[in-house]
Amino acid sequence: MRVLGIDxxxxxxxxxxxxxxxxxxxxxxxGTVKSSPKETxxxxxxxxxxxxxxxxxxxxPDVISVEEAFYATNVKVALKLGQVRGVVLLIGERAGxxxxxxxxxxxxxxxVGYGNAEKHQVQEMVRLLLKMKTAPQPHDAADALASAxxxxxxAGALDRIKSAKLKM
Length: 168
Description:
Largest sheet: 5 strands, mixed
Order of helices and strands: EEEHEHEHHH
Number of strands: 5
Structural class: alpha/beta
Helix content: 40-55%
Mean pLDDT: 92
Radius of gyration: 15 Å
Low-confidence stretches: none
Strand order of the largest sheet: 3-2-1-4-5
CATH superfamily: Ribonuclease H-like superfamily/Ribonuclease H
CATH topology: Nucleotidyltransferase, domain 5
CATH architecture: 2-Layer Sandwich
CATH class: Alpha Beta
Distance between the termini: 27 Å
C-alpha cells in the first residue's frame, strides 16, 4: 500500500509518501507545495490543486491521509484551512483514492505517544520510524509523513470497522 500524507496549509502544504504493509513501511518521498500570501486566495488554491495532482500522478498512491481541521482561535485561518482541505479531498475523490482523516492529536499520539507533542518531537519520531538520517524539513512535510504513518497504524482497525458495517 502506498499512502500520501497531507498536512494542509494555504501557504505551505506538506506532503509525504510512505509505502508498506501493516506496520512495516518506508519513506518514498516528501516535500511541500508553497504559495505566496501575496497571491489571491483562489490562485493559491489552484497552485495547491496543481501541486497535489502532480504528486498523485508521480507517486500513484492508494490512499490519501489528511490531517483534520483543528480548532483555531482565528476564524479566517480556520475557514482557509477548511477550503484547502476541501480541495485536497476533492482531488482524492476525483482520483478514485481511498481517503482517511485523522485529528492532529491522534496523529501525534500515534507517532510520538503524546497527543500534545511539539513539532520537533514529531519530526524526530518520523525520522526514527522512517530510518532517516536527518529529521524531515520543514515541519509541514514531517506532519504529512506523520499522517501517512498514522494511517498504517490505524488502517487495520478501519478495515475491520468497514467490514462490520457491510455485514449489517
